[in-house]
Each structure stands twice: as C-alpha cells, then as structure tokens.
Specification:
Shape: globular
Distance between the termini: 33 Å
Number of helices: 8
Number of strands: 13
CATH superfamily: Spore Coat Polysaccharide Biosynthesis Protein SpsA, Chain A
Radius of gyration: 17 Å
Strand content: 25-35%
Helix content: 25-40%
Structural class: alpha/beta
CATH topology: Spore Coat Polysaccharide Biosynthesis Protein SpsA, Chain A
Order of helices and strands: EEEHEHEHHEEHEEEEHHEEH
CATH class: Alpha Beta
CATH architecture: Alpha-Beta Complex
Length: 235
C-alpha cells in the first residue's frame, strides 16, 4: 500500500475566527500544521502518494505543500465544490486510488504515528479498517459496535440518550480497499441531509464484508475546537 487520501475541505466553524483565513487542518500544533504531522507520519510508514481534498481556503493548502517534493512525497489535489457530506467527498478519490488499497484520514485527526503501519497491516485481511478509541464521548461522533473478533457489526453517528451505545469511538482514520466505492455510490442522504461515509462503512459490514476495528495506541486528538488546540500546544 502506497496511497493516502486526506480530507481537508472543511472550514471548521467551531474554531471561530481562527479559520477565517485558513482551513482547520492548517492550524498549527507544536509549530507545524496538523496536516503536515499527518503527512509525515504516513510518509514514515512508507506511503508516498497522497491526494488532499481541499475546499475552504484551498489555496493555503496548495501553496504550503505544493507537489509534496519538499516532504519527499507526491501530492495531488481534488476540490470539494459542494459541502454535502463525508461520503461524497471520498468519491472524489476514486480515480486517484483506482484498484489500490489506501489509508483515509480526516485532516484534523492526530494519532501516534506507529498506528499508521498497524492500519495498513490490518487491511491485508479485511475490506476496511476503522480505527477506534475507548472511553471517548460517543455522542460527539460515531459509536462502533464490534463482535468477539473485534470486527465492526454496526456504526451509529452521535447516538442520543436512550439509543444503543458502545465504549468504542470512531477515531477518524481508516483503511479501505476499492469495494468501499460501491457502497458510497449507493448512499442516500442522512437525516441531517448529508451523504455519510459511516453509512457506507456500515452497509459494507452488513453486506458481509469484513470490516476490522483497530484500537489505536498512544496519543489521539480530534482538533475540533480552540480549547483542544490550546491544550495540544501547551503539551
């Protein structure tokens, strides 16, 4: 596996004025944009071919990373014109990935770099890999339900009080084989009016394809608001 797809199209409205001039993945943590930490971690795991999907303030990302040569990788770009959900945005990677497996990361998720090779290795025996963390607040994201082989059997976005829940939180970094695109193509809008990548993953699992959950080791952060950003920069 040599390819990675990074989602960097959103503004990140919870960051308020911090993202007026740049997209959220370009905010700095310990002197580098979050996106640079991700690219370097994946590069050090042996991935060299990157697609960054840009949108809000796309020129900031393109000007900073260029063709990737200064980081020793190859970077291509696609632009998300309409912000209609994480499912449709991944569809923009179909031509880039072709028949190859790939790692997908949200551009605002920081993980301990040793996890990238673990995701790649786990994908060898599955159609998809979903990274998870324990004891995060699943009402803020996705609750991942697993069987006794730690395979994903269900995935629910932001379960409300009284709905089924799980101790496993969707950590926002994935491994995929091309089968995911069949399920993305069939997506319908969710109750919030968006095409959700998590619906495609759930449908992949319900169709009998193996979706492996993988608990991340070490540090993990969803850089979703100014308080988390400030805390990361204090460490």
């Amino acid at each position: 596996m040599n390819k990675a797809v990074l989602l960097a199209a959103g503004r990140g409205t919870r960051m308020r004025e911090l993202t007026e001039a740049l997209p959220k993945p370009m905010l700095q943590v310990r002197g580098k944009p979050v996106l640079q930490h991700i690219i370097e971690g994946l590069r050090d795991a042996g991935l060299a071919d990157f697609l960054i999907i840009v949108g809000w303030r796309a020129e900031v990302v393109r000007e900073f990373f260029g063709d990737g040569s200064k980081l020793g990788v190859q970077i291509d770009y696609e632009t998300q014109i309409v912000q209609d959900g994480t499912g449709k945005v991944v569809e923009l990677a179909r031509q880039f990935t072709g028949s190859d497996p790939f790692i997908l990361s949200y551009g605002d998720i920081l993980i301990a770099p040793e996890n990238y090779p673990r995701i790649r290795n786990a994908l060898a025996a599955a159609e998809a890999v979903v990274s998870v963390k324990r004891n995060e607040d699943v009402s803020q994201g996705g609750a991942v339900f697993v069987n006794n082989k730690f395979e994903l059997i269900d995935l629910r976005e932001k379960p409300k009080p009284g709905e089924p829940t799980s101790p496993w939180y969707n950590a926002g970094v994935y491994g995929f084989k091309p089968a995911i695109f069949e399920f993305i193509a069939k997506l319908e809008r969710s109750p919030r009016g968006e095409y959700e990548l998590t619906d495609a993953i759930r449908n992949l699992a319900l169709a009998g394809k193996k979706v492996q959950a993988l608990e991340l080791s070490g540090d993990w952060a969803d850089v979703r608001d100014p308080e988390i950003l400030a805390r990361l920069n204090k460490l």
